[in-house]
## 1
Amino acid sequence: MASRIRALLARIARSYVLFVVIGLVVGLAVAPVAWDATSSEGTVAVVPVSGTIDGSTAAGVSSMLQQARADPDVKAVVLLVNSGGGGAAASEELYLQTKRTTNEMPLVTSVDASAASGAYYTIAPSDHIYAKPASTIGSVGVLATTPQELEPTDLVATTGPNKLTGGDDREFNYILESLGNAFVGAVFEQRGDELSLSRSELEQARIYSGTQAVQNGMADSIGGRQAAVEHAASEAGLDSYDVRVMRPDGTARFLSRSNYVASTAPNKTMVSASYLYGESPSGPVFLMVPASYIEPAANDSSVAANDSTGASTSPARVAVTGGTHVA
Amino acid sequence: MWRELGKRVVVLAVTAAVVVAVVTGAPMLLQSDDDGESLQNPEYNPDDVSPDPIDATGTVEPNPDPAADGTGTVVIDRAHSNRFSRADIEPLVDALVRSGYEVEFYTQGDLATHLDGADAFLVIDPGTEFLPGDVQDVRQFTGNGGRLVMVGEPTRTTVAATLGGTSVQAQESRLTTLASSYRMSVDSQYLYNQEHADGTFKHVLVHQTDAGDVEDVDRAAMYTAAAVSARGGTVLVRSAPNTHKSGSDEVTDEYGVAVRRGNTLLLGDKTFMSSSRYRVADNEELVAYVAEFMIEGDYQGPSGATTGPDEATDDAANETTTA
């Protein structure tokens, strides 16, 4: 009996069958890994732009875009936008970052709840903009508190007549106008071929729905995140690709409840308009947000209670009604 | 032995050098050099982005008709919660005083008494309507050769302090009763122009018309102005082309902002003549025109006066127009 078993083993050992079986087992085990290693031609990086655009937001998004540009695996970027804008300088920083990115690789945007004002500034260089019917897009313009008339006074000594205010309110309007011209000029530089709006119409700073935006050229197509990812991959020539969702550090701050609800940011919070203006603004604050976003009644319960009595206001409230602000 | 040790040291050094070169060089080779390229931003060309401010260098030099008597009184209304400051009227007052005229304020009492002997009555942005008796006094004044200048404003939003904090309120020019008795009206909406403006769209540029007698106002600036109109009157100054009324974004026109009807002048903005704005563009010429219009008033006392044909005897004088 033992001799027969030894003979069988010897035969198996001499045949190729065993090695074929072992080869199949090993091959099947290794194949998925090898497939993964060879099938992806590149990565589509998804960069969220969530909440009010301030210095922190701008730094986080800029960092993610820089990482995407520096990573040889990343062949395209998708901006996932859910913001009503924010500070003017921070919005301009993001515009420059997205513009730099589009110079290097395809960049496609998917607008979630909104891409208004400074957020639209951010996405203007995109190769393609997807919006949903319920998205809100537009509000291309700048608003600011106006400087207070403080001269002449002996309360503060200065070396020049404009040291306190920076200039009179007429000059201030020219400053504000130059910010607005830069904004509108940038939008036309990036999307002039697509826009059916005239410069004057764009300057009126209207908000549009996603479908209206597709009609007037502020967006390109109706679609969601998946469409944007697929479009970005196609633009990059990727038949097979990985998707890497990048996450910024810190908390996304929202002025708009609709944006807050739509956001998938893991850390998010609502803030009142005073986050942008301060409690008692002492000087000009340049903002790229729709005035409706800084209506305190929309998201500040304490102020909303006062508003119900008709006896409350704030710089933001006045901005909405056009009293002392320029929008 | 030392030779063998030296070989090993050389090998060690070469190995270390290779390691250092690989560790430091590889990331540099892998790193994208795109960020090193400068980004071109032609859309931010300063000459295209920064508008050139309009010059503000003029002086008000009234040049009234030689027939004007060179002395007299202008009464300024202060009895109807009028919203203007000293700075708003100082250039105009200065021009009147330099022309030999006195300026008085009417704050209360019988209006006819105050106007008796005056050459012109100036009403700026009243917060309350004129009562019928006052309207009659003014009409009698203009009917006797006195000049009336009304300055309105569009409805504005203001912040007012209250016991509960502050509130946002609409502030209207209450000129309907007085202006409509002259078949004139002031619009409630403000004008804006995105192409022809002094800094921002609400600061519209305006120009004289061929029909009126305003001269040298090729370009003036008005600051949140209202359109004005007068049935049977003459438009003296119009806004630049493509001016909008607020709330009518699709409609543009050249709206009248200064109209004259007989002895009455109606303007749609008070700020153009303020201390900080009267030098802008040709504003000083428009201020001079207003001063001349008042100086050239030739009021005759009620005892020997005749009623002006276009006003007091007008059957339709009591019609109320929409303001």
## 2
Amino acid sequence: MPLLEAKNVSVQFGGLKALSNFQFTLDQGELVGLIGPNGAGKTTAFNVVTGVCPPTSGDVILDGNSIAGLPTFRINRAGLARTFQNIRLFAGLSVLENVLVAIDQSAGHDLVGTILRSPKHLRRERGQTARAMELLDTLGLADRSASLSKSLPYGDQRRLEIARALATNPRLLLLDEPAAGMNPQEKLDLMNLIRFIRDRFQIGIWLIEHDMKLVMTICERITVLDHGETISEGTPEQVQRDPKVIEAYLGEPVHQ
Amino acid sequence: MKKSEPSTPPLAHGETREPSLWLTVLRSNWTILVTLLLLWPLNWLVHDANLIDNYTRRIILLIGVSIIAAVSLQLINGTSGQFSLGHAGFMAVGAYLAAYPMKTHSAGGTNPLGVLLFYIGMFLVIGIAGLLLLALFLIIRKSGRAHPQLPTLLLLIVGVWFLWDISSAARVRDGSAPPAYLVWSRWIALLGNLFDAVAHRGITMSMPAGIGRPICFLIVLIGGGACASVAGLIVGLPTLRLRGDYLAIATLGFAEIIRVVINNSAALGGATGFTGIPRLSNFAWIYGSVVITTVVIWRIVNSGKGRTLIAVREDEIAAAAVGIDTTHYRVFAFVIGSFFAGVAGALFAHLNVYLNPTEFGFLRSVELVVMVTLGGLGSISGAIVTAAVLTLLPELLRGFSEWRMILYSLLLIVMMLVRPQGLLGSREIWPWRRGGDRKAAPPPPTKEPMHAAP
């Protein structure tokens, strides 16, 4: 059984079909890419899966359970986390607190314990802080834990967003253009980071990216969208050779 | 669900066994208990030592009430970032629903049971009515899945039926028997009977007023607060989709509804005001409540709950994406905030011994918002300072008589021009930072950062 399965998903905004008959599967531990020109429906696909907008028709199945139309926070608790195209950190919180917020939700907290500072509450806060620090450490952000999240350099903000998503214990991580705005060195780091996360946490990763080098290097499978339609699917080599993809998105290779 | 094993939390100074629950709770709260105990000698100084005249004492006590209201509004407006303009409405609910049972059900402070039964009856009625409404709401929402036009239609039918029924009930009130088609009004009458049956049980508790009165007052404070937080829940639920200005207008409308209802309710004194409330609020009660309010809200803000509220304020989409039930937390802020607003109202009622609906008008709400904004959104100590200053200032400026409100407004304008983020911004006077238990310092990074690995 695949970890994530999209069955015939369509999304329509008025007369515009943002996504039509989208079919997709992703297995545990797989690293899959989603590419296509601007306005192809990539982010819409993410939004449907994460519950930001409900599908007009079709079904999304996570681990055997339908998640189509559920509110976003329930989908997250079912095991699906995401990052955003334009970084969305909690600007008023520190780096550590950004991760702590995500950890809190699975752990829960009781009001009376909070008000009385009960030992259970204090122990939980300590345990969560330790877990958050460990996660930050894993992603190389531990030394910045006390600074405000908006004061981080761009690459670190991306990394923090990933750390925050991982803190919710996902089985599937969705990355929306993680390399956008990064310089080549940061992209290289990111590539290593994505691979590392997949191996370390044994989770599925599905990413949207415009940087072809990154996508072709790390993804095992790639789906190509254009005008809401899936025009190609397969390994990076297959996709790169597909004439439809070349026409719609990649363009002809330059003659030497 | 696989995740690296969380390392064991670092224990403070090598303790081996967890001490008993009560001891630990006492250890984290003893300073508050001591503060509360210290209030009694202070209470004597303020009230009985002949050091302070009536006028000054009244201002000191009013400052306490303002602080409670401002700090509780800070949770809603500052921490959770929802702009509420209806805080005076919650205060009114607390004030009237504390003063009413105190006057009518406590038998001069000898019958705490009567007061308690009043609230039990109240909550039974609210609970049953709430369940019925919830059922109705769920049916209507479910019908939307079957057919998108159905909810509007159903709502229309139910609404018209409700209005028709109620209005015909009002018309037959003077006649003898109501016609058979009256459905809603009959349910409401039934709920009224239920309330009467519980609240006017006639069970009395003979108790000397000296002991009974503080007990009654405590029940009334908590009960008034609880009624206000139910009001907060009722406002919070339907206005959840509203943000910013729209929410402000909705809460403003709510506060006006409360005011108009009180204005027209004979049992609560109507426009002439509610009199005959015993003067029970003294320095210890008011400042004890100040301490408790501040501590509770401080701890909520500086715990996981507060972090979550800030996360929802900063970015609702991202908050939902990390598993936060944003709706739940927005209502949570309203419920807690309005609870303490209700307590402030109850204290005010027993300080002023006279309630008038005009006390809880739009201006009072605005005044509270000004306190919170001037103090700095998100700063509890800022709210305390400005609540004190802004309660004191009109009194200090009394010498300028008709000019004082102009001076006051000018001060506000200058303040906003010079320091738009408020007195303290989102910081606090005391040096502790947000983030809860400072003792749990983060462990130093031990492993190599990941990106060094291939």
## 3
Amino acid sequence: MLIKKIYLIFTISLVFAISFWIGFNVNLLPAEASINAPIYDELFKILFIIGLIIFIGMTIAVIYSLFKFRKRNDQIGDGIALEGNLTLEIVWTIIPSIIVLLIGLYSYNIYDRMGGMKELNHNHEMMSSDTEKIWAGISQTSDNAISKNNLSIEVSAMQFAFLFNYPKGNFISGELHVPVDQKVSMKMESKDVIHAFWVPEFRIKQDIIPGQPTILNFTPTKVGKYPIICAELCGPYHGGMRASIIVEEESDYNDWFNKNKKSEVNL
Amino acid sequence: MTISIDPQKTNNESLQPKGWLRYFSFSLDHKVIGIQYLVCGFIFYLVGGTLASAIRIELASPMSDFMPRDVYNQVLTLHGTIMIFLWIVPVVNGAFGNYLIPFYVGARDMAFPRLNAVAFWLIPPSGLMLVASYFVEGAAQAGWTAYPPLSITTPHSGQIIWILSVLLLGGSSIFGGINFIATIIKLRRPGLKLMQLPMYCWAMLGTSLLVVLSTPVLAGTLILLSFDIIANTGFFNPVLGGNVVVYQHLFWFYSHPAVYIMVLPAFGLVSEILPVHARKPLFGYTTMVFSIMGIVVLGLVVWAHHMFTSGTPPWMRLFFTIATAFIAVPTGIKFFNWVATLWGGKISINSAMLFSCGFIINFVFGGITGVALAQVPFDIHVHDTYFVVAHFHYIVYGGTVFIIFSSIYHWFPKVTGKMLNEKLGILHFVITFIGFNLCFAPQHWLGLNGMPRRVAEYDPQFQFVNQISSLGALLMAISTIPFLINIFFSIRGGKDSGDNPWNALTPEWLTSSPPPVENWEGEAPLVEEPYGYGKQFSD
């Protein structure tokens, strides 16, 4: 009996150890390039470890049962007539309930830190945002009053391209340029069918819906070029509907901005 | 309570065709209808599988080079629609439900045999129509979700045929659901209490409630969508002031419960298979019943977790996160109970057992990714990516389809009186299990790293992992060969099984194999302990 208990404790510790080791050492996610990304990855790591413990534990239980309790050739008759065990059943109702509840509260916390529970706000001087009905997205803001320095971009999506309108420079670009470490606020609307704006390195996604503007705010943290991917089936060329977001140092961004601003005025 | 069926009025043997011809007739025998559902479903499974192979061939290279892009979208739309509406839903509900439920309640047939036959005969024409729409102007190409405005702007004929076909299949599903509820509640033999029913009856009762409550919503939605397409109304057309997100709410109000319509019957079937081959009573009967009903109730209030990126307000995101995650509790109870059923048994390691254990392992994996996907912040990154594709294939293929195969190995002797070949069966299991995991496990990584779903072309950095996935799909395609060989040879030349080869205690085994037309020669037996293993020898 004691030996059995030791085996059980040993197996459970082994499952936990393996799960934690994999959880901390195997990286399944792309680079982290926005404020949201490390927060997301923290949640991912927790869920990954809990998931591994349950999965490895259940798999071992099933495979062990198949070996240990397999019917030998000389055996006849049935197994034990065990129809249930109330204590055990209550235990495996309550423990998963607690785990699920804790995960829910934790992910609420993560979502709040990502800005998901903030009231949405968008400062576009060009638009009458008071009367407009704004649909939810993620608002990466610490408070409702967005500073004037914020970069506001209007995104329009159509089959099969994204266009980025910089109202302050009065020009439209097919590439999204943003300065690093600055809040970007995007108001997005679709010209035809539903599209979605997804940057895997930022861990954010928002559908772009015809007839209903959506908001997406984010703060890039790493200089580089990342793909913008349409994630909602939008027609035959859906797979090719991609653009790039170029995160650059503020001076580089300003050079790019001024260059484009001029050329637009000349037209 | 039981209505005894007068042989003069129903199922008159002299009026019904005999032999294999009866499977092509408007038969009223629930067993014939069950087999009709199963074989018809399996043929569509082969069609849907061929489409899946075409998708995996296209995705073996990063360029869109195997088929035209619009054809690719038609293929993925038909693959999803066929697999859901013509294979999984009709087979786990219609096929096994029709075959087993009258036995389990001790009846001679379903409550409404004619409605039952109508429900089946709606399926082949709507399925053929769906496949034939490819040759008209191109099949529907807006995905099985048919989100407007895409479904309004793509070629109309294909989309309208798709809507008509899904409406007919939904009608068939509702007829079936009503029939199951009536049969389980009203046709039980005298003396048989609800809490003595085999677990599959409870699963079918829960499933049928979901079917009856949610399918009409889908029907209404699709009728409105068809008005938008043919009559230029503006329910979901933003150009005319319609709201595209409302469609998504209505669609998922059916289509999330549809997941439970696909897995709850499988939960029931595995609860019948495990006790027989483990020679132990089903562990925790009462908690199993309550967890099924818990899943039914919760399953109706989780639909918006498909819409976390659609522009839903924060409170709604939060509510649906918690509700969805809590489904893991009743589902978890069932899995712990099944493992406890195995524990301490005398387990025969055969094909039915292996597929059931494969189901447990695959479904636990899919369930874990499901709880992760329920969390809004997690979902926002992976929504509409290959992570989701991998997740739901772990649920519907690794879960339900594994159980369909397990059930075929388990009940084949019942239906035919012949045994299936165990060596071929185990070979089938091994190839399916390896192929399935090779195909879908790598797709989690693809989704996390930036590959959206429903694309014909992708970033070349994902090529290697996609090729592994396609290799897995090839193995899955190959795995049907030993299965089909096994079926065809065993029907003719298989070993005679006798009436009850597994020494099972559930009522369907207490008659001859194959059973007579009205199930029992005499009165239906009263089975008070369908899982009383271990007791018969100790008495």
